Amino acid sequence: MLFTHFYKICVFEAPFSMDPEVFKDLVQKEVKRIQGELIEFAKYLRAMKLEGTVKSTHAQKPGEGILNIAKEVNASLIITGSRGQSKLRRTFLGSVSDYVMHHSPVPVLVCRREN
After folding, report:
1. Strand partners, 55
2. SS3 98
3. Could you tell me if 48 and 1 lie in one domain?
4. Would 80 be classed as within a structural domain?
5. Above 90 in pLDDT, residue 71?
6. pLDDT of the residue at 90
7. 93 and 42 assigned to the same domain
8. Neighbour count for residue 110 (Cβ, 10 Å)
9. Can you give the residue ranges of the UspA domain (predicted)?
């Protein structure tokens, strides 16, 4: 089983110049923070008696990243969560699970969190 979790890393245009070494340091700190969170996520999965691999990837959009990983590992099923956004919010902002459902070449199971 493969587990993925996506983080948004913001790269922005600053109205001022930044020393490339300072910028590189900021990016490295963010990557290290995310790696730490992935390690904690893997520990949580083991505690829940779930076996699998936690994988990190880079993508413009989370849905694209999920589909790229699914293709890479030759997945036969994608299970994804849903945050339960309203129809209006999904219409304007989109939904990762909707994107995956409509673009995946393999079956997709969407799970909603219990209230």
Report:
1. 4
2. helix
3. yes
4. yes
5. yes
6. 56
7. no
8. 15
9. 35-112
Give the residue numbers spanning the domain of 71. Answer: 61-115
Question: Tens of pLDDT along 44-55?
Answer: 989 999 887 888
34, 51: one domain: yes
Q: b/e string for 39-66 if b means 16 or more Cβ within 10 A?
A: eeeeeebeeeeeeeebeeeeeeebbebb
**Band of the pLDDT at 7, cuts 50, 70, 90?**
low
Token match 């493969």: residue?
A: 2
**94: alpha, beta or left? (left if phi > 0; alpha if psi -120 to 50):** left
DSSP string, 38-77: HHHHHHHHHHTT---EEE----SSHHHHHHHHHHHTT-S-
Confidence (pTM) = 0.69
- pLDDT for 79 equals 86
Could you tell me which residues come within 8 angstroms of residue 89 by beta carbon, excluding any fewer than 6 positions away? none
Give the whole-angstrom CA distance, residue 52 versus residue 75: 13
Number of separate domains in the chain = 2
